[in-house]
């Protein structure tokens, strides 16, 4: 009798995707069939999913589509099972029914066949449990733990337009072998809001947001990591262990002017190994002596860079809240503001005092932009 441990990752991906097969394409696809959904369900690193789906697609077992996904504004890549894939999955399930698995039930482990599991909880739940097998053990008495997300200190995203190409680049980073992504931009260009938007879209990912301040210490950073590692009241774990956690996205926000010890910490972080993905938002005007990586790390893809500029005119028009704005008026606003989302949002709100206090524009420039943004064609 075959053992359940003989199921490959690709076998489990097929079993997982087959649960969502449908003859009629829905308006919105479930998040479970995106790359993140597959990684979370099957229990593999996000970076391993492209390799698995590429092999299955090459074999004609699944098809890749770009479609709307429930809970996401942007279109995303999803993976659907073909007719041949369904036939092969049915053959695979026959093997599963005969295989034996260690099954955890009410805290106790026993050996059961796939057929006995199916009889106990039904085909649909059995296929979910077997595709989600962890360390060779099938659990049928526990629901999956919700992701741990600690986002205190992250900006709220009330209005967000555009940045599709930047969000796509961040998705590519998650799917790559690179561990660190540095998102570069000057104040007012919305890099923190962009990253928060991206984190919000990664619903199945554990996430930790670490705000950086000029006087922050390495001890404080490590304590933040260790506290996150408690996971439900357990004793703190070393920061290094948290950095090695799978399915974890860590954001270090607003790297700018920091202590020498913090620069050294991030230099070491770039060189270290671990499964957690790291995003660092940094200002382009960061002093040269404070940079923690160099061209060689970028060339080797150890570090990826994403440079953020102003919004394009289409996104700026939507953020201003005037779809009928005169083209010339929009161009003049773009020339003055350089498409900075922060400035455009304050213009939308008509916040004269906020613009005076938080931007470098003169009072005359601010009043002129406020006048222009209400001009309609």
Features:
three-stranded mixed sheet, 11 strands, 16% strand, alpha/beta, Rossmann fold, 377 residues, single chain
Explain the layout of strands and helices.
Blueprint: H1 9-18, H2 35-42, H3 49-58, E1 62-68, E2 75-81, H4 83-98, E3 100-105, E4 108-113, H5 114-121, H6 123-131, E5 138-139, E6 149-150, H7 164-175, E7 180-184, H8 191-201, E8 206-211, H9 218-228, H10 239-243, E9 248-255, H11 260-271, E10 277-282, H12 295-299, E11 303-307, H13 313-320, H14 327-337, H15 341-349, H16 352-358, H17 363-372
Helix pairs in contact: 1-3, 1-4, 1-6, 5-6
Care to describe what's here?
It is a single chain. With 377 residues, this protein is α/β, with parallel strands linked by helices. The protein is globular. The chain contains 17 helices and eleven strands. Strand 1 and strand 2 form a beta hairpin. The longest helix is centred in the N-terminal third of the chain and has 16 residues, at 83-98. Helix 1 packs across helix 3 and helix 5 crosses helix 6. The mean pLDDT is 85. The protein folds into three domains: 4-139, Arc Repressor Mutant, subunit A; 149-307, Rossmann fold (3-Layer(aba) Sandwich), CATH 3.40.50; 313-372, no CATH class.
């Amino acid at each position: 009798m075959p053992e359940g441990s003989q199921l490959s990752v690709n076998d489990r991906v097929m079993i997982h995707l087959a649960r969502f097969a449908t003859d009629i394409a829905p308006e919105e696809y479930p998040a479970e069939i995106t790359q993140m959904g597959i990684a979370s369900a099957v229990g593999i690193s996000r970076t391993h999913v492209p390799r698995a789906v590429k092999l299955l697609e090459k074999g004609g077992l699944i098809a890749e589509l770009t479609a709307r996904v429930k809970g996401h504004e942007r279109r995303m890549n999803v993976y659907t099972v073909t007719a041949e894939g369904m036939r092969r999955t049915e053959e695979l399930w026959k093997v599963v029914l005969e295989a034996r698995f260690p099954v955890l039930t009410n805290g106790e482990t026993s050996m059961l066949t796939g057929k006995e599991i199916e009889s106990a909880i039904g085909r649909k739940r059995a296929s979910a449990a077997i595709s989600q097998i962890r360390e060779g053990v099938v659990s049928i008495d526990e629901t999956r733990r919700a992701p741990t997300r600690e986002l205190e200190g992250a900006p709220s995203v009330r209005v967000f337009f555009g940045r599709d190409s930047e969000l796509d680049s961040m998705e590519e980073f998650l799917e790559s072998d690179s561990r660190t992504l540095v998102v570069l931009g000057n104040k007012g260009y919305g890099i923190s809001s962009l990253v928060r938007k991206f984190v919000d879209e990664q619903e199945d990912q554990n996430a930790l947001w670490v705000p950086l301040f000029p006087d922050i210490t390495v001890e404080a950073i490590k304590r933040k990591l260790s506290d996150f590692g408690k996971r439900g009241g357990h004793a703190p774990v070393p920061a290094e262990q948290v950095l090695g956690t799978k399915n974890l996205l860590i954001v270090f926000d607003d790297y700018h002017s920091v202590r020498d010890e913090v620069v050294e910490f991030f230099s070491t972080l770039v060189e270290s190994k671990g499964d957690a993905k790291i995003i660092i938002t940094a200002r382009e005007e960061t002093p040269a002596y404070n940079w923690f990586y160099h061209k060689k790390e970028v060339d080797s893809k150890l570090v990826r860079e994403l440079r953020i500029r102003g919004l394009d005119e289409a996104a700026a028009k939507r953020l201003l809240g005037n779809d009928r704005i005169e083209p010339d008026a929009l161009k003049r606003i773009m020339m003055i503001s350089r498409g900075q989302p922060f400035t455009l949002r304050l213009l939308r709100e008509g916040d004269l005092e906020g613009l005076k206090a938080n931007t470098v524009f003169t009072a005359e420039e601010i009043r002129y932009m406020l006048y222009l943004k209400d001009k309609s064609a």
